[in-house]
Amino acid sequence: xxxxxxxxxxxxxxxxxxxxxxxxxxxxxxxxxxxxxxxxxxxxxxxxxxxxxxxxxxxxxxxxxxxxxxxxxxxxxxxxxxxxxxxxxxxxxxxxxxxxxxxxxxxxxxxxxxxxxxxxxxxxxxxxxxxxxxxxxxxxxxxxxxxxxxxxxxxxxxxxxxxxxxxxxxxxxxxxxxxxxxxxxxxxxxxxxxxxxxxxxxxxxxxxxxxxxxxxxxxxxxxxxxxxxxxxxxxxxxxxxxxxxxxxxxxxxxxxxxxxxxxxxxxxxxxxxxxxxxxxxxxxxxxxxxxxxxxxxxxxxxxxxxxxxxxxxxxxxxxxxxxxxxxxxxxxxxxxxxxxxxxxxxxxxxxx
Length: 352
Prior knowledge:
Elements: H1 2-5, H2 8-17, E1 24-27, H3 32-35, E2 43-46, H4 52-69, E3 73-75, H5 81-89, E4 94-98, E5 109-111, H6 122-127, H7 151-163, E6 171-176, H8 188-201, E7 205-210, H9 218-230, E8 238-239, H10 246-254, E9 258-262, H11 265-270, E10 276-281, H12 286-289, E11 299-303, H13 323-326, H14 330-346
Parallel strand pairs: 1-2, 3-4, 4-5, 6-7, 6-9, 7-8, 9-10, 10-11
């Protein structure tokens, strides 16, 4: 999801550069909700990955559809094998992509992506693909990440929160406790300590714990233990609201006072709102994937600090103990969250 969120500033820039063009976005189902209501797009093609003969037939149908559209330009923001192949098979006269070993020949315009660009934001790296189009430079305020609010999802979330006792006077904090990769999962015990501290700080505060499909039981385990430690009436300050789709998570965060989570797709969905964010970074760097939005919207990055193994390729933990995550203390996250909440209460916002 995060990769698709990071393309949304470019979508706006392309629309401004070519106001009369027909813009189509090709995406796989897991991230389709990110761009489903994007006002800069004319068409959305959702292309699932299927196996066997069914997958082959679907892929051939997709190629026929792309070629029938007779696109003038295709930009491959992903750079993976399937994306490269579909870019080439589209038959577009101009095909822009990264220099990739063994696949660069599929593009008519190639953009370098050396390791030297690693400590640089993903949005800026993707913007390099727009250089041949002479678009405006990347700017967080002019071209923030976008995911429009889905009214149906917003209504569903409001109903669920209402049933849980949340009213307009309640201060809601969203804590997302899972990630698709073990290299980005902060320990459950750390999340529990954070949830407990935040929940017990104020009577009018409610903490909504969420998790993704990669760890469906993570939220339940953390909610159960946090409630046990809080005990009594305070246990009800940690809410059990079930699973949220990407569109529902966007709506949930939109109405919250604070979002806390690791560097994964939901963090970047949260960045499409104006809600304050505490982002946890383990093997990745804030400079590469911090919330890409106007500096007036508050966020803080919490990380373990400089380590010789950080950043890493997230294939194997060289020290073996995931120290980039385990060395992030809950007190750091709690303090960052309270600072942002206090700043919002005073009407001041700061980004650090």
